[in-house]
Amino acid sequence: MSELIDLDPVDLGILVALLGIAIALSAWQKIGLEFKFATAAGRSIVQLLILGYILDVIFALNNIWAVVGILAVMLTVSAIVTRNGISKKIPLLLPLLWISMFTSTSVVLLYVNFLIIQPEPWYAPQYVVPLGGMVLSSAMNGAAIAGERLVKTVNASQWEIETHLSLGATPQQAIANYRQEAIRAALIPSINQMAVAGIFIIPGFMSGILLGGVGQEQVPLQVASSAASYQIVLLFMMAVANLLTTVLLTQGLCRQFFNAEAQLK
Questions:
Q1: Which of 25, 58, 149, 231 sees the fewest Cβ atoms within 10 Å?
Q2: Is the dihedral of CA 112, 118, 120, 126 positive or negative?
Q3: Model's pTM, two decimal places?
Q4: Which residues pair with 258 in a beta bridge?
Q5: How far is CA 227 from the centre of its chain?
Q6: What residues are paired with 264 via a beta bridge?
Q7: Are 191 and 259 in contact, with CB atoms under 8 Å apart?
Q8: pLDDT tens digits, the chain, 265 residues: what are they?
């Protein structure tokens, strides 16, 4: 199998020109996304370069506390970004997001790590960090969709909720349908991703393994088989983590919507 082709600064410069086409197209069509395109591109370049150096250090250290530290930072940043996308007015939303994503990601990651992959040592950063990061990213997206949908629906349905409460329903019963709809909406991307994976679509994680070649001593068939296996593992991890995250988050949000007397805030 051919060796991995390294990209030099000239190649990356040509790649930036590709984004310039998108910026020019946005200006031509008067979409107004030129500044956002440029800002997002600049941030992604700087952030990914920094992340690359950090991962080099973590992989070299091969230390459990370094692995836990990088995952904790990723979790905290994800929780803050998700909170900003849902609402800053809901009390305790940030710790609720943090705990929900931490619980779901930890449960799924430990299950797969100890029962399926079983790396040596068990905290091997080349497995724990990328898998944990991708599962956490998926859980963050699920939390953002479910949280935003539930908050907007409850705000728009206050009279209906008050009516249910006046008829004797508990707070959980009064918003049960809204909570279920929010969870379903958050899980649609994961279900769709599993449904179309492999049908003329190569998922991102699998593409990365194929490009990297896993181990250059492996033959193409072995690389493709390994890529497919790890992609299946990742898809299932993300689906379960999304469900756990949204269930925990929406349960906690429902409690934030009502006071001690079961009245809608």
A1: 25
A2: negative
A3: 0.79
A4: 264
A5: 20
A6: 258
A7: no
A8: 455 566 677 887 888 888 889 899 999 988 888 998 889 888 888 888 888 888 888 888 889 999 999 999 999 999 999 999 888 788 889 999 999 999 999 999 999 999 998 988 888 888 888 889 889 989 999 999 999 999 999 888 889 988 888 888 888 888 889 999 999 999 998 888 888 766 655 555 555 555 455 444 544 555 566 667 777 888 899 999 999 999 999 999 988 888 777 777 7
Q: Quote the CA–CA distance of 67 and 57 in Å, as a whole number.
A: 10
Q: Which two tokens stand for residue 253?
A: 């949000």
- Structure tokens belonging to residue 48: 């990914």
Cβ 132 vs Cβ 105: under 8 Å: yes
Could you give the 3-state DSSP secondary structure of residue 264? strand
- Identity of residue 129: V
- Burial of residue 9 (CB within 10 Å: 0-12, 13-18, 19+) is exposed
DSSP 8-state class, residue 124: -
Q: Give the largest CA-CA distance in the chain.
A: 70
- What residues contact residue 223 under an 8 Å CB cut-off, 6+ apart? 1, 209, 210, 213, 214
**Segments in the chain forming alpha helices (H):** 9-28, 34-61, 64-86, 93-112, 125-156, 158-166, 171-174, 176-196, 204-212, 220-256
For residue 126, give the nearest of 208, 6, 218, 241 by alpha carbon. 208
